[in-house]
User: What shape does this take?
Amino acid sequence: MEAATARLGRGKRRKKDKSYGSEERRLAALLLSPAMVVIALVAAYPIGYAVWLSLTEYSLRVPGKWRFAGFDNYTQAFGDSDFWAAVKNTFIFTGISVTLELAIGLGMALAMHAAFKGRGLLRTVVLVPWAVLTVVSAITWRTLFEPNLGLAPTVLGKLGIAENVVWLGQSGYAMAVMVLADVWKTAPFMALLLLAGLQVIPDDVYDAAKVDGATAWQRFRRITLPLLMPAILVALIFRTLDALRIFDLPFVLTGGTNGTSTLSLIAQQQLTTNNLIGYGSALAVLTFVIVMAVSFIYIRTVGGNIKSLAEDT
Amino acid sequence: MMKTPRMLAALVATALFAIAGCGGGGDDSGGTPKAEKATQAKASGNVTWCIGKDTTGAFGTVVDNFNKANPKAKVKLLELPESADDQRRLEIQRLRAKSSECDVLGMDVIWTAEYAAQGWLKDVSDYISQNGDKFIKSTVDTTNYQGKNWAVPFNSNAGFIFYRTDQVQSAPKDWESLYKDAADNNGIVYQGFRYEGLTVDFLELLYSKGGSIVSDDGKKATANSQEVKDVLKFMADGIKDGAAPKAVTTYKEEEARRAFESGNATFMRNWPYAYALDKKSKIGSKFDIATFPGFSGQSGAGVLGGYNLGISAFSKNPSGSLAFIEFATKPDQQQIMATEASLPPVTSATYDSAAVKKAMPFAAELKTAIEQAKPRPVSPVYPQISEAVYNNVYDALQGKASPDEAASKMNDEIQKALETF
Assistant: This one.
């Protein structure tokens, strides 16, 4: 009945909508304009300026030196093995750490979702690592893995594991510590996002499944996972983009040595340590482009999956 | 060239950081070193002194002493972070923006040429030519760039070999026997991490072999030499043969000090600050210090550290600034710095004072070490030269490059850095 009226009135209303809407839209634009100006100043302008700087040869090493360089900085970056090493390290770090965080975070979320005594306390305690500043936790991890004196190599050495390994001074091991520090810190964040997703799944769906004789695994696989997918996607995007821009962990833990240099780290080093404004900006822009590309791919592929999943159920 | 967005540069830098995880933007100062002189010292007006964190309170004492003695002037201490890299970054940010906030700049000796070349400092040659003989000569050399003096020495530094008297009878006479003793006992720890400290440790060995990385005129890289290759091989073999633990590649000063104090090392290369702390540790009665040995047949050589005080080119009160610098580098104030903060004085006379000898029982050795120490290459591109050194030394220590490869790459990178200026 309702649908029919709507269909009937459509032609007439659309015209009305248009004139009414344009006035509304004008007001909306007017109200939004101060915010837009602020965004243009603090976001669009700096991005544009960084892109502009990346097209110049501009170095504070040489007073007054400036020239338009076109894509020279980018050519230099693509021919620089340090750049490719940083790309590789950044993706290895992101891939491993985000996967582990998703698995552990999901486990934590499911555990915290179950009803038991002291649940509120647990939810609070679990968030402690997330609340610690990354730099502070990185320094803690560095101390833990300090050769000879650190707790980790001492205990592991006693157990006969990784004896004579200098954790932060060897390729592979250094990356492992970096991943560990990141997972420790951000798995609770992942868990919190997923927990929020779990809580909106209505109980009656599970009740109905139970009546139908679905096993716990079937309920997880057929109900929890599909309905949790949007929350997982959001959590994944958050974590992946953060991980791709990782800076503080390698900065504190290893200074980018032994296969842990990341894109943000090399851009920062070129900009502030080496004072190569043009080249550093090019690296920053490349980081930005990579992050944008990854988030685009994410939304395209995983976003599509969600739709089809939603249609299946 | 764009002019309008200059004012927004600072704002932009912050936003950039948020977007791509880094900072940038800024202002170029332009031109060759300005020869604007600061000659008159007049203790009046406001002066802001920017220097690294006053961890011991000694800087504050000197400022108070000055303000008490000069009622017409007021010096304010502006503390920068503890890490030298952060200090340099913050000073350069201010200087790039032509900020007059800092009148007197505390600079690591290796930044002086860079600041001077950028036109960020006032020429204090006249002051040095009148008062230079008060200072230890090697410390004055660090203030010189292109024949002029751009700063006044404030404190100096030189490394030492710390050794366990319960494991070796005396300080080894040359580097070869030191490494052999180290391999037979618990090893030597030094600053092997990829940073400025590794450049210093490498140069100490190289200088005592008579090698160099940059020609005397500062125009050509000289690192592709037999001496550089020999030293790289010596250091890499040291790790391979167990004279130094693999872990030194993660050590800065503090890590080395902790390893030595925990009893895990027979030798340590470190700065004098570690002495007082080591004395309080469990090995306090079991170690002694010595100046660097040389390679067999050659004499030892240190590398000069320390800080200089310069006057910002953008200072509104250069005469007041010079008056304060004059005060802070007087022997009595230098003595406060030595006794309260363990900062090695730059004035020769201070080393003879009883109070200094009591606070630094190694004062005589320290003075000798500073007199004999050589400066690191004086160049406006020193940070890039050092980067070329520590990156390649690190690769050699890690076994990622052979000594020959590392030496040749180091040479190319230094040459490239020199040519950018």
